[in-house]
Design a protein that fits this description.
The protein starts with 13 loop residues before the first strand and ends with a helix. It has one domain: Alpha-Beta Complex (Protein-Tyrosine Phosphatase, Chain A), CATH 3.90.190. It has twelve helices and seven strands. The protein is globular, with a radius of gyration of 18 Å. The strands form two sheets. A five-stranded mixed β-sheet has the order 1-4-7-5-6, with helices on both faces. β5, α2 and β6 form a beta-alpha-beta unit. α10 packs across α11. It is of the alpha/beta class.
Length: 257
Protein backbone atom coordinates (compact mmCIF):
# COMPACT_ATOMS: atom_id res chain seq x y z
CA UNK A 1 0.00 0.00 0.00
CA UNK A 2 1.02 3.65 -0.35
CA UNK A 3 1.50 4.83 3.22
CA UNK A 4 2.49 8.43 2.58
CA UNK A 5 -0.42 10.71 1.72
CA UNK A 6 0.63 13.97 0.07
CA UNK A 7 -1.22 17.01 1.42
CA UNK A 8 -0.71 20.70 0.75
CA UNK A 9 -0.07 21.97 4.26
CA UNK A 10 0.09 18.95 6.58
CA UNK A 11 3.51 17.38 6.78
CA UNK A 12 4.44 13.71 7.19
CA UNK A 13 0.89 12.39 6.82
CA UNK A 14 0.62 8.64 6.49
CA UNK A 15 -1.39 5.50 7.24
CA UNK A 16 0.32 3.37 9.89
CA UNK A 17 -2.08 0.44 9.60
CA UNK A 18 -1.96 -2.61 7.28
CA UNK A 19 0.96 -4.39 8.99
CA UNK A 20 1.06 -8.08 9.87
CA UNK A 21 0.22 -8.64 13.55
CA UNK A 22 0.88 -12.27 14.29
CA UNK A 23 -1.66 -14.34 12.38
CA UNK A 24 -3.83 -11.26 11.83
CA UNK A 25 -3.31 -7.85 10.23
CA UNK A 26 -3.89 -4.21 11.17
CA UNK A 27 -6.77 -2.70 9.29
CA UNK A 28 -5.82 -0.07 6.70
CA UNK A 29 -7.58 3.29 6.76
CA UNK A 30 -8.03 3.33 10.55
CA UNK A 31 -4.73 4.65 11.91
CA UNK A 32 -3.16 7.87 10.63
CA UNK A 33 -0.23 9.98 11.82
CA UNK A 34 1.10 13.40 10.83
CA UNK A 35 2.50 16.76 11.77
CA UNK A 36 0.18 19.54 12.94
CA UNK A 37 -2.78 20.74 10.88
CA UNK A 38 -2.40 24.51 11.39
CA UNK A 39 -1.38 25.09 7.76
CA UNK A 40 -3.89 22.67 6.22
CA UNK A 41 -5.45 23.89 2.99
CA UNK A 42 -9.19 23.65 2.39
CA UNK A 43 -8.43 20.74 0.08
CA UNK A 44 -6.50 19.04 2.88
CA UNK A 45 -9.42 19.49 5.25
CA UNK A 46 -11.80 17.94 2.73
CA UNK A 47 -9.49 14.93 2.45
CA UNK A 48 -9.34 14.60 6.23
CA UNK A 49 -13.12 14.74 6.43
CA UNK A 50 -13.33 11.89 3.91
CA UNK A 51 -11.16 9.67 6.13
CA UNK A 52 -13.93 9.36 8.72
CA UNK A 53 -11.79 10.52 11.63
CA UNK A 54 -13.51 9.95 14.94
CA UNK A 55 -10.55 10.81 17.22
CA UNK A 56 -7.73 13.33 16.84
CA UNK A 57 -4.85 13.08 19.31
CA UNK A 58 -2.88 16.35 19.52
CA UNK A 59 0.31 15.65 21.48
CA UNK A 60 1.52 19.27 21.38
CA UNK A 61 1.85 21.40 24.48
CA UNK A 62 -0.63 24.18 25.18
CA UNK A 63 1.66 26.96 23.92
CA UNK A 64 2.28 25.08 20.67
CA UNK A 65 -1.44 24.72 20.09
CA UNK A 66 -1.98 28.41 20.84
CA UNK A 67 0.83 29.46 18.50
CA UNK A 68 -0.41 27.28 15.63
CA UNK A 69 -4.08 26.42 16.18
CA UNK A 70 -5.34 23.30 14.43
CA UNK A 71 -7.59 23.86 11.43
CA UNK A 72 -10.81 21.84 11.31
CA UNK A 73 -13.16 21.00 8.49
CA UNK A 74 -16.82 22.08 8.39
CA UNK A 75 -18.94 19.83 10.58
CA UNK A 76 -15.92 18.59 12.54
CA UNK A 77 -17.21 16.27 15.27
CA UNK A 78 -14.20 14.14 16.18
CA UNK A 79 -13.14 13.74 19.80
CA UNK A 80 -9.93 15.71 20.45
CA UNK A 81 -7.48 14.30 22.96
CA UNK A 82 -5.03 16.89 24.30
CA UNK A 83 -4.06 18.38 27.64
CA UNK A 84 -2.57 21.50 29.22
CA UNK A 85 -0.45 19.72 31.82
CA UNK A 86 3.03 21.19 32.37
CA UNK A 87 5.98 19.29 30.98
CA UNK A 88 8.00 19.01 34.15
CA UNK A 89 10.53 16.25 33.53
CA UNK A 90 11.75 17.18 30.07
CA UNK A 91 13.76 20.09 28.74
CA UNK A 92 11.59 21.72 26.11
CA UNK A 93 12.94 21.86 22.58
CA UNK A 94 12.63 25.63 22.48
CA UNK A 95 14.81 25.96 25.59
CA UNK A 96 17.44 23.68 24.08
CA UNK A 97 17.66 25.67 20.83
CA UNK A 98 17.53 29.07 22.52
CA UNK A 99 20.31 28.19 24.96
CA UNK A 100 22.74 26.60 22.51
CA UNK A 101 24.13 26.60 19.00
CA UNK A 102 22.79 23.21 17.91
CA UNK A 103 24.88 20.78 15.88
CA UNK A 104 23.91 17.34 14.52
CA UNK A 105 25.72 15.79 17.48
CA UNK A 106 23.99 17.92 20.10
CA UNK A 107 20.61 17.27 18.45
CA UNK A 108 21.28 13.52 18.69
CA UNK A 109 22.24 13.83 22.35
CA UNK A 110 19.12 15.88 23.08
CA UNK A 111 16.87 13.35 21.34
CA UNK A 112 18.41 10.38 23.12
CA UNK A 113 17.75 12.08 26.45
CA UNK A 114 14.25 12.99 25.39
CA UNK A 115 13.29 9.48 24.30
CA UNK A 116 14.62 7.99 27.52
CA UNK A 117 12.36 10.21 29.65
CA UNK A 118 9.26 10.91 27.54
CA UNK A 119 7.45 7.59 28.19
CA UNK A 120 7.24 8.45 31.91
CA UNK A 121 6.29 12.12 31.64
CA UNK A 122 2.90 12.58 33.41
CA UNK A 123 1.60 14.68 30.53
CA UNK A 124 2.24 11.90 28.03
CA UNK A 125 1.00 9.16 30.34
CA UNK A 126 -2.34 10.98 30.50
CA UNK A 127 -2.50 11.35 26.73
CA UNK A 128 -1.44 7.75 26.08
CA UNK A 129 -4.03 6.32 28.49
CA UNK A 130 -6.86 8.34 26.97
CA UNK A 131 -5.73 7.44 23.46
CA UNK A 132 -5.73 3.69 24.09
CA UNK A 133 -9.10 3.93 25.79
CA UNK A 134 -10.40 5.73 22.71
CA UNK A 135 -9.12 2.88 20.54
CA UNK A 136 -11.33 0.53 22.52
CA UNK A 137 -14.40 2.75 22.33
CA UNK A 138 -14.17 4.26 18.83
CA UNK A 139 -15.37 2.75 15.57
CA UNK A 140 -13.98 5.42 13.24
CA UNK A 141 -10.45 6.32 12.20
CA UNK A 142 -7.85 7.95 14.46
CA UNK A 143 -5.25 10.63 13.70
CA UNK A 144 -2.22 11.01 15.99
CA UNK A 145 -0.12 14.13 15.52
CA UNK A 146 2.28 16.50 17.23
CA UNK A 147 4.21 19.32 15.56
CA UNK A 148 6.37 17.38 13.11
CA UNK A 149 4.75 13.97 13.43
CA UNK A 150 7.99 12.19 14.21
CA UNK A 151 9.04 11.96 17.90
CA UNK A 152 6.04 12.28 20.18
CA UNK A 153 3.89 10.78 17.46
CA UNK A 154 6.52 8.16 16.71
CA UNK A 155 6.60 6.81 20.27
CA UNK A 156 2.82 6.52 20.51
CA UNK A 157 2.46 4.90 17.09
CA UNK A 158 5.21 2.41 17.95
CA UNK A 159 3.38 1.56 21.19
CA UNK A 160 0.18 1.09 19.19
CA UNK A 161 1.96 -1.32 16.87
CA UNK A 162 3.44 -3.24 19.79
CA UNK A 163 0.08 -3.48 21.57
CA UNK A 164 -1.49 -4.78 18.35
CA UNK A 165 1.18 -7.45 17.89
CA UNK A 166 3.15 -5.90 15.00
CA UNK A 167 6.69 -7.28 14.73
CA UNK A 168 9.70 -5.25 15.80
CA UNK A 169 11.12 -4.92 12.28
CA UNK A 170 7.88 -3.40 10.98
CA UNK A 171 7.60 -1.12 14.01
CA UNK A 172 11.04 0.34 13.32
CA UNK A 173 10.50 0.47 9.55
CA UNK A 174 7.28 2.45 9.98
CA UNK A 175 8.97 4.81 12.41
CA UNK A 176 11.80 5.45 9.93
CA UNK A 177 9.40 6.38 7.12
CA UNK A 178 9.71 9.92 8.49
CA UNK A 179 13.14 10.02 6.81
CA UNK A 180 11.98 11.06 3.34
CA UNK A 181 14.80 13.07 1.79
CA UNK A 182 12.60 14.48 -0.97
CA UNK A 183 10.21 15.82 1.66
CA UNK A 184 13.11 17.15 3.72
CA UNK A 185 14.53 19.03 0.74
CA UNK A 186 11.15 20.62 0.01
CA UNK A 187 10.60 21.68 3.63
CA UNK A 188 14.13 22.77 4.52
CA UNK A 189 13.72 26.45 3.42
CA UNK A 190 10.55 26.82 5.50
CA UNK A 191 12.09 25.13 8.55
CA UNK A 192 15.15 27.37 8.25
CA UNK A 193 12.98 30.49 8.01
CA UNK A 194 10.83 29.50 10.99
CA UNK A 195 13.95 28.79 13.06
CA UNK A 196 15.35 32.25 12.32
CA UNK A 197 12.03 33.92 13.12
CA UNK A 198 11.44 32.02 16.35
CA UNK A 199 14.95 31.88 17.78
CA UNK A 200 16.75 34.73 16.04
CA UNK A 201 19.57 32.49 14.89
CA UNK A 202 20.67 30.67 11.77
CA UNK A 203 21.08 26.92 12.13
CA UNK A 204 23.02 24.92 9.53
CA UNK A 205 21.15 22.84 6.99
CA UNK A 206 22.97 19.75 8.27
CA UNK A 207 21.64 20.40 11.76
CA UNK A 208 18.12 21.10 10.56
CA UNK A 209 18.12 17.83 8.63
CA UNK A 210 19.10 16.07 11.86
CA UNK A 211 16.19 17.80 13.57
CA UNK A 212 13.73 16.80 10.85
CA UNK A 213 14.76 13.14 10.83
CA UNK A 214 14.67 10.23 13.24
CA UNK A 215 17.08 7.42 14.06
CA UNK A 216 16.28 3.84 15.06
CA UNK A 217 18.37 4.27 18.20
CA UNK A 218 15.95 6.91 19.48
CA UNK A 219 13.08 4.43 19.57
CA UNK A 220 15.39 1.75 20.97
CA UNK A 221 16.23 4.06 23.89
CA UNK A 222 12.53 4.61 24.65
CA UNK A 223 11.78 0.89 24.62
CA UNK A 224 14.89 0.14 26.69
CA UNK A 225 13.74 2.65 29.32
CA UNK A 226 10.33 0.96 29.45
CA UNK A 227 11.96 -2.44 29.91
CA UNK A 228 14.25 -1.08 32.61
CA UNK A 229 11.37 0.23 34.72
CA UNK A 230 8.67 -2.33 33.92
CA UNK A 231 10.49 -5.46 32.81
CA UNK A 232 9.20 -5.32 29.25
CA UNK A 233 7.28 -3.08 26.86
CA UNK A 234 4.20 -5.18 27.67
CA UNK A 235 4.85 -4.48 31.34
CA UNK A 236 4.94 -0.76 30.59
CA UNK A 237 1.66 -0.95 28.68
CA UNK A 238 0.05 -2.84 31.57
CA UNK A 239 1.55 -1.12 34.61
CA UNK A 240 1.97 2.46 33.32
CA UNK A 241 -0.98 2.70 30.93
CA UNK A 242 -3.48 0.13 32.20
CA UNK A 243 -3.47 -2.06 29.09
CA UNK A 244 -4.19 -5.39 30.75
CA UNK A 245 -5.09 -8.51 28.78
CA UNK A 246 -8.73 -7.49 28.49
CA UNK A 247 -7.94 -4.04 27.09
CA UNK A 248 -5.37 -5.50 24.70
CA UNK A 249 -7.94 -8.00 23.41
CA UNK A 250 -10.47 -5.20 22.92
CA UNK A 251 -7.88 -3.21 20.94
CA UNK A 252 -7.15 -6.28 18.82
CA UNK A 253 -10.81 -6.67 17.98
CA UNK A 254 -11.04 -3.00 17.11
CA UNK A 255 -7.92 -2.80 14.93
CA UNK A 256 -7.17 -6.23 13.49
CA UNK A 257 -8.61 -8.10 10.53
Amino acid sequence: MTRRIALDGIDNFRDFGDYAAGARRLRPGRLFRSGHTARASDTDLAKLADLGLAVVVDLRRAQEREREPARRWPGFAATVIDNDMPQEGLQEWEQFVAASDPTPGSVRDYMLGYYGKAPFEPRYLDLYRRYFQALVETEGAVLVHCAGGKDRTGILCALTHHAAGVGEADIVADYLLTNDMERFAARLPLVSQLTRERFGKTVSDETLLAVMGVQAEYLEVAFAAMRSRHGSVDGYLDQALGLDAGVREAIHERLLL
